[in-house]
Amino acid sequence: MLEGGHLYGASNRIYYACFYATIALLLTKDLSSPKHTGVVSLLNRHFVKEGVIPVAMGKFYSRMFDNRLESDYGDIVDLDEDDIKADLEKAEEFIKQIKVLLVAL
Questions:
Q1: How far apart (Å, rounded) are the C-alpha atoms in residues 10 and 97?
Q2: In CATH terms, is domain 7-104 a member of 1.20.120.330?
Q3: What is the mean pLDDT of residues 71-94?
Q4: Which H or E run contains 85?
Q5: CA pair distance 52, 39, nearest whole angstrom
Q6: Is the pLDDT of residue 70 over 90?
Q7: Rounded to two decimals, what is the model's pTM?
Q8: Domains of the chain: which residue ranges?
Q9: Is the per-residue pLDDT at 58 higher than 80?
């Protein structure tokens, strides 16, 4: 999507890639939430606060959630391709860290 210039779609897919990785991590502790805000809260409470996930990664996930809300439901949002590319790189790092945790658990 990013290569095709679909910035809104790319931003949305970046969030959902992180979301599903986070869901997998939460399930290792039998945690789940029917709401996206609940997933953010559970990640922060059980993994960031406990020092399992770095604070910066928790903040990144929260920012991706906010970006997704804004791009999906907000008024006209001006997205920057360079920002989306940076988010994609951070998402890859975020997911990589979760994969390491999943293998270790």
A1: 21
A2: yes
A3: 88
A4: helix 81-104
A5: 16
A6: no
A7: 0.93
A8: 7-104
A9: yes
